[in-house]
Write a structure and sequence with these properties.
The protein is of the alpha/beta class. The chain has helices at residues 4-7, 10-15, 40-50, 72-90, 107-117, 129-138, 158-165, 168-174, 196-199, 214-228, 238-248, 253-269, 277-297, 301-315, 322-333, 340-352, 379-387, and strands at residues 61-66, 94-100, 150-156, 179-185, 204-209, 320-321, 356-362, 369-375. It folds into three domains: 40-209, Rossmann fold (3-Layer(aba) Sandwich); 212-295, Helicase, Ruva Protein, domain 3 (Orthogonal Bundle), CATH 1.10.8; 299-387, Arc Repressor Mutant, subunit A (Orthogonal Bundle), CATH 1.10.10.10. The strands form two sheets. A five-stranded parallel sheet has the order 2-3-4-1-5, with helices on both faces. It binds adenosine-5'-triphosphate and magnesium ion. Magnesium ion binds at residues 72-73, 156. The site of magnesium ion (MG) has 3 residues, from helix 4.
Length: 389
């Protein structure tokens, strides 16, 4: 005989379990809130430029800079939603298209994607670049009502595309009438990848997104918590603690939200009706562990060798100069090594990923300067990630 409770639906049973969450989706990265506290100035700056499109004038290009999790994508999408609303009401021919350049990594792909988003049937491969550009520009010919289309293109995470694919995309877009670009970047110096011929036609305005401080992060979390959690499940210090931890991580709102969501998940897992501060600390370890593991597992093998060498030197408590690192790396990679020059690129990339830090020290008069490298993540964590995958 099968017992009655085994025959109950497993999904129903799991779903009916008590949870601190009312609706978890409000803590998801993809959720775009109706209100973005402490970004009013940035939203207004974008709007101030884009508003020209409503009177049929192509707006200036804008560049949005700021560290990770400072609300760049959220603000751009928010401004887009509002502009689309009003342009529909006013019946003007303005479109805002969003492209994440980590998904479309070449000039061809971005332009093909734009054509597709606007209803043109352009394949992702097979045509020449000139053909794709031609199809794209065709869309700007006056339509039957004689109305010009103004297109604003948000190019999010543009850094890697520029670095790997050059500035051809910007060249093409800045030379297409009625197109305005809004590029979003993490690095203030991303313009080093843009040649003067393009720089001069990029009529751009810069908008800087400063990191959030702890108080600002608290305001952001308060609003989200209201939507996401049931009443009275949050201990008093949970939000301040998440905010303080994220403020230390360069004011990253995404990290703050991750901490809060993971703390809630830990409460659920422990069958607790309340989210305690300890869950936040646990969440921090959990997130950090996953982050490092993810990064390391996706690193190319030569970079893993560099990391291995760094680990070796760190455990021997040696001071790590780039020269010494290269010596050890060459040992480890046994003839399959890359040049000393490439190691510098690797070091830069590992630093951008936050796994290491470097500082330049002077060796005293006449002895020049040296780069000293330091691991920035927990040794145990790194070892686990390197050997267990
Ligand atoms: N002012 C804010 N109010 C509410 N939520 C915010 C605010 N700023 C950021 N967020 C939220 O924090 C998360 C990260 O923001 P966003 O993705 O816009 O950061 P970003 O600057 O684009 O980061 P990255 O450089 O890593 O792409 C998102 O879930 C976003 O909704
Ligand atoms: Mg973003």
């Amino acid at each position: 005989m099968i017992k009655g409770d085994l025959m109950d639906n497993i999904f129903e049973k799991l779903g009916g379990k008590n949870s601190v969450f009312k609706s978890k989706k409000y803590l998801d990265h993809r959720f775009l809130p109706d209100n973005l506290p402490h970004r009013e100035d940035q939203i207004r700056s974008v709007a101030k430029y884009w508003i020209e499109s409503l009177i049929g004038v192509t707006p200036p290009d804008v560049t949005i800079y700021g560290k990770t999790g400072t609300g760049k994508t959220a603000v751009a999408k928010f401004a887009r939603k509002q502009l689309e609303q009003i342009s529909n009401e006013k019946n003007v021919n303005v479109r805002v298209e969003y492209i994440r350049c980590t998904d479309y990594t070449t000039e061809y792909q971005v332009i093909a994607r734009l054509c597709q988003q606007m209803g043109q049937d352009v394949p992702y491969r097979g045509w020449t670049k000139a053909e794709v550009i031609h199809a794209f520009r065709d869309m700007f010919k006056k339509n039957v009502f004689g109305k010009n289309l103004i297109l604003i293109i948000i190019l999010d995470e543009i850094d890697i595309l520029l670095k790997n694919n050059g500035d051809g995309l910007l060249y093409t877009l800045t030379r297409t009438d009625n197109v305005a670009i809004a590029s979003i970047s993490n690095y203030v110096d991303f313009k080093q990848f843009i040649k003067p011929r393009v720089k001069s036609s990029l009529r751009d305005r810069e908008i800087v997104f400063p990191p959030y401080n702890a108080q600002q992060l608290m305001d952001i979390l308060d609003e989200r918590a209201e939507l996401a959690f049931n009443n009275e499940v949050l201990n008093n210090d949970v939000i301040p603690l998440c905010a303080a931890m994220a403020a230390k991580e360069e004011g990253d709102a995404r990290y703050a939200l991750d901490l809060l969501r993971t703390s809630g998940e830990l409460a659920d897992e422990n069958g607790s009706d309340v989210i305690y501060e300890d869950y936040v600390r646990e969440a921090k370890d959990y997130i950090e562990h996953n982050k490092v593991t993810d990064i390391i597992m996706t690193l190319p093998s030569q970079q893993q060798k560099v990391l291995e060498s760094l680990l070796y030197l760190t455990k021997r408590k040696e001071e790590i100069t780039s020269g010494r690192l290269y010596e050890v790396y060459k040992e480890f990679s046994k003839g399959d090594s890359v040049s000393y020059r490439r190691i510098f690129d690797f070091i830069n990339e590992l630093e951008l990923l936050g796994l290491i830090s470097t500082k330049t020290v002077s060796r005293g008069r006449g002895k020049g300067r040296t780069n000293i490298i330091d691991l920035q993540c927990d040794i145990q964590l790194l070892e686990d990630a390197m050997w267990n995958n």
